[in-house]
Design a protein that fits this description.
Layout: H1 2-10, H2 15-29, E1 47-49, E2 52-54, E3 58-60, H3 71-76, E4 81-87, E5 100-103, E6 108-111, H4 120-129, E7 135-140, H5 151-162, E8 168-172, H6 187-208, E9 214-218, H7 224-236, E10 241-244, E11 265-268, H8 272-286, E12 292-295, H9 301-310, E13 314-317, H10 319-324, H11 327-335
Parallel strand pairs: 3-4, 3-13, 4-7, 7-8, 8-9, 9-10, 10-12, 12-13
Antiparallel strand pairs: 1-2, 5-6, 6-11
Length: 336
C-alpha cells in the first residue's frame, strides 16, 4: 500500500526527477528506522551459480542504482543479489534531457540516459561504505568519448578498480544509448574485447587471490544467427556467463502510445517475449553449463518462471519493480 501511494505521487512528476527523488530518499533513510517502510524478510531459496551462492534467484538489474548509492536499501527489500552501474572510468553527464519516459499503459519505460554516472572511483567508495555482505554485481562500460578501438582500455580500467569489491563483473556492450556501443557485440571487435577482459581477469585473480566471474550483457535485437555468433565468442573467450537481455529498439508493441516514438531503449512488458527467445536461443547455443541471468519484462512469478524455463538460472528485475515495488520480489521468490 505504501509503495502504491508513493508511486502514484511520483508518477505525477517528471520521470527522471521522480527517479532521483526516490534514490535520494532511499540513500538518506537506508540506515534509519524509516527503512521499515520498505524492509521485508524474504524466505531464503539459495542457488549456486558460477561458484557463487545467491540467497534467492531474484536480483536487481543494473541501471537503477548507477552509482551504488543505495545498496543497503535494496538489500533491505530482499533481493537475492544486487547489480550496480553501469559505471565508466570517468564521470559523464549522459545524454540531453528529457531522456526517461514512462509508458504506463504498457508497463514500460523508454530511456536514453547514456551511461550517466559519477565515475568508477565514486562508485567504489560507496561500495566500500555499504554494510551489505551479499552478492554484488558491478556493471562496467566505456565512456562515450572513448573510440570503440580503445574501448577495451575503459573496460580493463574499470575491472581493475572494482575487482576487489565485486562478486561478479558485468561487461555491458548492449546499451543502445551510447553511439556505436552495440558494434562491440559482433565479430572480431567482440572477440578482441573479451580476450582482453579475460586476460585482465586472470591477472587480477592472481593478484587478489580470488576469482571474480565475468558476465557479458547482450541485446535482444538479434536474430538467431547473431545469437549463435555471440555464443561462440563467449565460449571461445571463456566468459563465465551472460546476462540476457538489455533494452530493445523495437517499438511495435507500443505503437500509438504516448512517448512510443522517443529514441532510446524500451524496457518492461513489451520486451518480455523477445528477451525470453534470446535466452532460449543462447542456451541452445552455449550448451547446458554456461550461467545465464534472465532479464527483460519480468513483472510476475509467471514471467520469471518463463525465463528460467528458457534456460536462465537467475533473473533480474527493473521496470516491473518500478511499477510494482518490493512486493514483486516476494511474489516471485515465494513461487519458485
Amino acid at each position: 500500500m505504501f509503495y502504491k501511494i508513493a508511486r502514484d505521487l511520483m508518477f505525477c512528476a517528471d520521470a527522471e526527477k521522480s527517479h532521483h527523488f526516490a534514490l535520494d530518499s532511499l540513500k538518506a533513510l537506508q540506515h534509519t528506522p524509516l527503512s521499515m517502510l520498505w524492509r521485508q524478510q524474504i524466505q531464503p531459496k539459495p542457488v549456486t551459480v558460477a561458484g557463487i551462492t545467491f540467497d534467492n534467484p531474484v536480483g536487481l538489474a543494473a541501471g537503477l542504482d548507477k552509482n551504488a548509492d543505495c545498496i543497503d536499501a535494496f538489500a533491505q527489500m530482499g533481493f537475492g543479489f544486487i547489480e550496480v552501474g553501469t559505471v565508466t572510468p570517468r564521470p559523464q553527464a549522459g545524454n540531453d534531457k528529457p531522456r526517461l519516459f514512462r509508458l504506463p499503459e504498457a508497463n514500460a519505460i523508454i530511456n536514453r540516459m547514456g551511461f550517466n554516472n559519477k565515475g568508477v572511483d565514486y562508485l567504489v567508495e560507496n561500495v566500500k561504505k555499504a554494510q551489505y555482505k551479499g552478492v554484488l554485481g558491478i556493471n562496467i562500460g566505456k565512456n562515450k568519448d572513448t573510440p570503440n578501438e580503445q574501448g577495451k582500455d575503459d573496460y580493463v580500467h574499470c575491472m581493475r578498480k572494482v575487482y576487489p569489491y565485486a562478486s561478479y563483473i558485468t561487461v555491458n556492450i548492449s546499451s543502445p544509448n551510447t553511439p556505436g556501443l552495440r558494434d562491440l557485440q559482433f565479430g572480431d571487435a567482440l572477440l578482441d574485447l573479451l580476450n582482453a577482459v579475460k586476460n585482465e581477469q586472470l591477472d587480477l585473480a592472481a593478484k587478489h587471490g580470488k576469482y571474480v566471474p565475468v558476465f557479458v550483457k547482450i541485446a535482444p535485437d538479434m536474430d538467431e544467427v547473431a545469437v549463435q555468433q555471440v555464443a561462440e565468442t563467449l565460449l571461445q573467450s571463456k566468459m563465465d556467463g551472460a546476462i540476457a537481455t538489455n533494452t530493445t529498439l523495437e517499438r511495435s508493441a507500443v505503437a500509438g502510445l504516448k512517448h512510443a516514438n522517443e529514441s532510446g531503449g524500451l524496457s518492461g512488458a513489451p520486451v518480455r517475449l523477445k528477451s525470453t527467445e534470446v535466452i532460449r536461443q543462447l542456451r541452445s547455443a552455449v550448451g547446458p553449463d554456461m550461467p545465464i541471468i534472465g532479464v527483460g519484462g519480468i513483472d510476475s512469478a509467471e514471467s520469471a518462471q518463463e525465463k528460467l524455463n528458457a534456460g536462465a538460472q537467475l533473473v533480474q528485475i527493473y521496470t516491473g519493480f518500478i511499477y510494482q515495488g518490493p512486493q514483486l520480489i516476494r511474489s516471485i521468490v515465494n513461487s519458485l
